Amino acid sequence: MTPVMGSMPQFDPAIETLALSKTYGRFIALHELSMRIPQGSVFALLGANGAGKTTVIKVLLNMISPTRGSATLLGVDSRAIGPTILAEVGYVSENQALPLRLRVNDFFAYLRPCYAHWDRNFEDELRGQFCLPPKRKIGELSHGMRVKLTLACALPFRPRVLILDEPLSGLDPLARDEVIGGFMRQLGESTILISSHELDEVERFATHVGFLHEGRLLFQGSVGALAEHARSLFDVGVGNTVACPSLRDIFVAMVQAAKQRSQRTIAQ
Amino acid sequence: MIRHILRKDWNLLWPMAAVVAAIQIGYEWAVFSSGLFGENPAAEALLRPLTLAWFISIAALTVAVVHQDPIPGADQDWLIRPLNRTQLLLAKVIFLVLAISVPMFVLNLTHALAMGMPVAASLIAVLSKELFIFACFIVPVAALAATTRNMTELMVLGATLVLIYAASVSLSAFFLGADWCPTCHTGMAWLQHFGQHAGILVGAAVILFLQYYRRQSSVARGLAIVGTVSLVFIQLPWTTAFHIEQWLSEPSSDAAAVVLELGKELPSQDAASGRKSSDSRQTTQMLLRGQLDQAFVNLHRRARPGEAPVTIDLPVRIIGISADELLLSDRSQIQLFGEDGRLLYRGTSTGASAGLLAADGGEVPGLTYQAFELPGNVYRNAAARTLRLQIEYTLTLVKVRAEHKIAALDGELRSADLGICATRLDRNSVTVHCKSISQAPFCYSGTLYEADGRHDPEVFECLPDYRRHWPALIDVLNYSGIDLPVRDPYATAPDAPKLETSYVLLKIYGELDHFKRTLTVANFQPERWRDKAR
Q1: Containing domain of residue B491, as a range?
Q2: Would the CB atoms of A63 and B79 count as touching at under 8 Å?
């Protein structure tokens, strides 16, 4: 049973999964994941590489189909989401397959008509902020520049939900700050789901946290609730005495506790 | 949205579209410059590489536009954009029409009109050609492209399908023998081709639907494989093909009088020496023509006469066809029964001398030789026995529909059925070549006449093909031609034809009726008819 802590809002969540499972042959990528992301929150989905974070996001965006269970995005089942919902969702991923032969300018020109509420001034502002070279082909951009480009393309239509899949991975500190600065502008306007294994960075802005480990959700709740849960965990669980545990400490403790539980289960 | 997707694809792919158009222009120029007799060797030499380039460039452009927004995979940018799938698919289709079909339409039409073809016929022919290419080449290529992410994946899939096709053909031929394709090499092959093309189009449409609306790449690839195997194994049975063809033809009673019976045997030559020299000559000719397979079959036959199939030449007399009619044999099923009525052998032959069974005239009017092969072991068992032979013929009666005269030397002719024709003396023969915007006739003859009415034997060119209309693939024009041997082209002999005043009489035959006849020979001794006509 996943511990759900803190004050969960009563109104419809922006994102919700119910017993969501995804398997690839015998490999279980997600195991009965039930998760609620409140509207307006910044939800950090944390986990090690291979924990299943990207799978959750791809199921949410109907890029892949779930094996069992369901996921809803803005109240619509993920398998049924179409252009109307996608027009409200911004997506940034390090693995996004962009049209590499297109020039930056042409890419923006292509995307603008796709979104009814595209804010051209905001676009210009973002392009200026990220120093995106307009004439250069996307394939010639560095990794950091491509992430900035996808972010600059995900914000001008002021999405109701912004989904960021490992946006900070592989970025230098300067670029990280720029990217974080970019999506921080959406705080309050959008519900933000950010997946990451960069726990220290995420701690700066997350309002809610979900810990994912080997396809299972170990914890979800507000940051305040996490602190309470951490106290009980450190007092009873692993016996560490950490005065003010960081996200990293809590995550490591939870993963250890989960491993111990699973070892006990195997032993029994 | 369609416009924006189209503009994006055009921005990226216009150089490729330009290359396709350039290849098409080059091809049209080469065809135009080649003329009727290949007057421009350089242009003619370019035709083959340009044909290959035409296929490759069109396929490459089709694949490229589909791969701009690949369907398989879960990282594609378009998946998270608010794009309507129908609009995405339509944008691709419109791009292909604008980048391939429209330029091709303009070029083909220009070519046809420049050749002096009638406007209405040219428009219909060009339009049907572009539709045919789009439906039966571009759409299937787009469907295959939609199941892959990039060119490498597509090449792997394409190679796999080719291997599966080849293996299916081999298996089919191994298990079913000659019956693996009952309509192949007959005038009714077009029915099988029509079914196959329709199947390919439907399969491609299903794959596109699966990919663009369901994104089920594994199912779509599986369907492509199943479709490839089906192309080989789903064959139209001969009887069904015959009934369809009969149903499509206008009802006619012209064939009612046609009767087939065993003809009288002609005085025979020295069978042994005649056969030997004939076989040697045939083998040499085959080798010179580059027909290695057939030459090896002949050599094998000579090396192992006991095992090799034996050719039987049965004189068949045809009664009931008039002077302006021809009888084409589409297929003959040979059955050999023993003295006790037991079936000893059953085999199929698809007509003698390219389907032409009989023409009124010749050495013995109405007499022809039906050639068929008996396997070596069957022949050895049956050679001296008296058996019952039954041949079930599927026949087509054709009749002269039009006649045209054209001067034997540098003549020119324009007609609705043959298009534009010209004649030329080519070494030892008068050659007639024609280009037409409409379908070329499948059966025609040419006779070289002198001014005083004397004439050479009629030369036939009959390759049964009963399709009503089948659009061209690359070249919008259809070609026909015939070579008429001249005894003494330089007019050195006293009785040599005067070609300056000679003319060629062209007869165009059209199908009249499809029907069946059975020929039964009660006392058939195989050894009596062995290689009789050779």
Answers
A1: 400-509
A2: yes
